[in-house]
Amino acid sequence: MSRPNRPLAQPRRTALSLLLPALLLAGAAQAQATPDGADEVTELDAVQVNAYRTTTHTSGGTRPDAPRAEIPRSISVIAREELDARGAINLNEAMRYVAGVVLESTGQDNRYDDFRIRGFSAGSESGAMSVDGLRAPPPGSAWNRGKIDTWNLDRVEVLKGPSAVMYGQVAPGGLVNQASKTPEPGQRQVLQLGVDGHGTWSSAFDVGAGTGDDRHLFRLVGRYADGQTQIDTVEQQHWFLAPSYTFQIADTTRLTLLGYYQEDDGGSTYQFLPMDGTLVPTRYGYMDNRTFIGEPEWNTWDATVWHAGWLLEHAFNDSWTFSQSARHMHVDSLYRAIVTNQGLLPDGRTQQRRQVMGLGDADTDGIDNRLVGTFSTGAADHTLLSGVDWRSGDWSADRHQGPRALPSDPRNPRPIDIFDPVYTGLPAGFPNSIGMGGGKSTQTGIYVQDQIALDKWRFTLGGRYDWYKDESWSQTCSGTGTCQPRSATTTLKDEAFSGNAGALYMFDSGFSPYLSYAESFEPSTYTALDSYDGKAFDPTRGKQWEVGVNYQPASFDGLITLAAYDLRQKDDAIVDTEHGNVCGADGADACYISAGETRVRGVELEARVTPVQGFSVIGAASHMDSELVRSGTAWEGKALAMVPDWMASLWADYTFQSGPMKGFSFASGVRHNGATLLVVSGIGIAGSGYPEKIPAYTLWDAAIRFDLSQVSQANLLMSLNIGNLADKRFVTTCTGISSCWFGSGRTVTATARWAW
Fold first, then answer.
1. H-helix or E-strand containing 84?
2. Residue (of 701, 662, 715, 683) closest to 280 by Cα position
3. What is d(CA 492, CA 470) in angstroms, rounded to the nearest whole number?
4. DSSP 3-state assignment of 709?
5. Residue of 86, 119, 87 lying closest to 102 (CA atoms)
6. Is 608 helix (H, G, I), strand (E, B) or coil?
7. Binning pLDDT at 50, 70 and 90, where does residue 675 land?
8. How many other CB atoms are there within 10 angstroms of residue 701's CB atom?
9. C-alpha closest to that of 345 among 416, 410, 279
10. Pairing state of beta strands 353-377 and 433-454?
């Protein structure tokens, strides 16, 4: 049956992201053969639902809320109940069972989330993430990033392929939209206490209140965690508070205010490791994945993240609505570490080191205005979206480094034994050099999209035009504070059009085959001085063709998607071998041309189904065939780094419905990540002594829960979640002989959650 109409005067039953128009005009354009209220998990009586309900609607890929099965593209939605059931506390854990996503690009990193979608970087470092439909990472360097606590999320939406029409400049592989919790009428109060196997204790709450007429609704979400991490000697303290308030100004007007404040203090689990001892054994074997090779008094990760904004929604009439999302976001951080300095010494156990420190801050303002109208032209029903968005960001960052060229320099920390580390303290003389930089960027975009329902056909047509400007500067100083003149401000300007189109047909059987095309762009980081002819560089372009089928069975809850795609990134800047080193401000630097091309072809299968009450299955499989089509390097024609040929995962969760085991739930999962090509200069080739690939790995997860509300009046849920059950040691990425990263080892988390 179709999703019921819900006027603006009725407060939301499910948490909506900032970008969502609250007025959901159903009609023929959004007919959906799913049970009413399938995604309204907040009204269930138990603390934890027995099986995962399929999220039938999503907003991240279309802006107006739309039935997931009617969208002609791949979108994975991880609902709040699934995050809770699997014990996910960050995005990498949340997406463990999503097809086409390679996790932990920089290993067990507590600073921010980094991952790849369909072969391309899509995490914090890439800037391809959003919170409530507004771009989240501020511009700038790695010191201007931070992660949002997943306890404050209602759901995670993983958009596969280019998404420029809705979000402007993005990487071609995909984008993750994090949808925040917002006030709800009749909200239950939740308190959760937990402890993990490393000795970190945590407490979290999610509480709300409202007036009798639901005109005023309040919500406060928070979490505190303090203790040890997987890495020896590294401790971390983390907390956040997220208040929100919804005011029903009138029957047709609603305002929601959202705030978020987060502090991280302590050490960082992010550390560079030698290739010998991690990817390949020395004569002493492999180092332990918990080993810390820094210095305890130096290792630091301190970050402050806060943002504040609003969602304004107004219905002009039954057909036209306006919504506005706005947010200011601030990030500042301090990162200090002892890092590897060249490869492991010939003795097979001693690693030379140096000190680094990075600090920075960034501020970003964003606003998005959307007008949505529903109307008919003959037999066709339209949901027309038009919008204008704007984003501006300022950033600055400093990087302090110890001596790199001479590892034995006495100003560097003493070498360390990676198999039996002894911490010796820090020498005097830091830093050796300081690199400073900063800048400002602005982006303005206009977009339009039409979702058309014609009988059983669903069509999507969209287009967007963006104007982008970036201004940046840099300066180098010695460790004593003697600075070179600040560089001239480099100005980059780009503008680009991006489009998408899709068609889908809904069979009565629940099958919905589709075909879609989508584009993306990213501004070039090169200026006219880097080209031989003095012309500005075009943006890097992403283009994807996708064909697939959605299947939503009528007999049970679930959604299955099978998709095949051809994704290409073109116009990458590569070295201009014809003209040599005659470019740059001094006429002695390498010249570049916009001629690079990267290709990823793939097939994905993903399913979230509950075939019988109490039993749910999440499965995913993907095959990716990647190629660096043109690069002007020795790696031309090879596969891409960090892109496995095969990936697969399966999670099964069963809750006993009756008998002596009623209230108990058992779950188990397995994840496989195929081997990936090691593309590092001079490494992974014949005679280098190192393998060509990073080995494949398979990991097991498990969970057990007991819901006392099923057998008593106590509304208490006790859970035990275990990730990487066998504590398998595995390497996720290597970018050099002194730059490898371990993935997460075994994590054991016990929680108790009360709700009333």
1. helix 80-86
2. 683
3. 5
4. helix
5. 119
6. strand
7. very high
8. 22
9. 416
10. unpaired
Confidence of residue 3 (pLDDT cuts 50, 70, 90): very low
Angle among Cα 524, 526, 531 to the nearest 5 degrees reads: 120
10 Å Cβ neighbour count for 580? 12
The secondary element (H helix, E strand) that includes residue 91 is: helix 91-94
CA angle 239, 244, 245 (to 5 degrees): 160
Tell me how far apart the alpha carbons of residues 354 and 454 are, in angstroms, rounded to a whole number: 64
pTM: predicted TM-score of the whole model, two decimal places = 0.88
Q: List the chain domain ranges.
A: 28-755
Give the distance, in angstroms, between the CA of residue 335 and the centroid of all CA atoms in the same chain. Answer: 21
On the 0-12 / 13-18 / 19+ scale of CB atoms within 10 A, 477 is middle
Letter for the amino acid at 581? N
Query: CB neighbours (10 Å) of residue 636?
Result: 14
The tens digit of pLDDT for each residue in 560-614 reads 999 999 999 998 888 887 788 888 877 888 888 888 899 999 999 999 999 999 9
Both tokens of 276, joined, read 């010998």
- Closest-CA residue to 550 (of 61, 75, 150): 75
Query: Does 431 sit behind a cis peptide bond, omega within 30 degrees of 0 on the bond before it?
Result: yes
User: Dihedral of CA 79/85/91/95: which sign?
Assistant: negative
Q: What is the 3-state secondary structure (H, E, C) of 466-527?
A: EEEEEEEEEEEEECCCCECCCCCCEEEEEEEEEEEEEEEECCCCCEEEEEEEEEEEECCCCC
Q: Does domain 28-755 have CATH number 2.40.170.20?
A: yes
CA 468 → CA 196, 441, 546, 590, distances in Å? Answer: 45, 7, 28, 25
Q: Among residues 207, 132, 216, which one has the least CA distance to residue 166? A: 132
Question: Above 50 in pLDDT, residue 41?
Answer: no
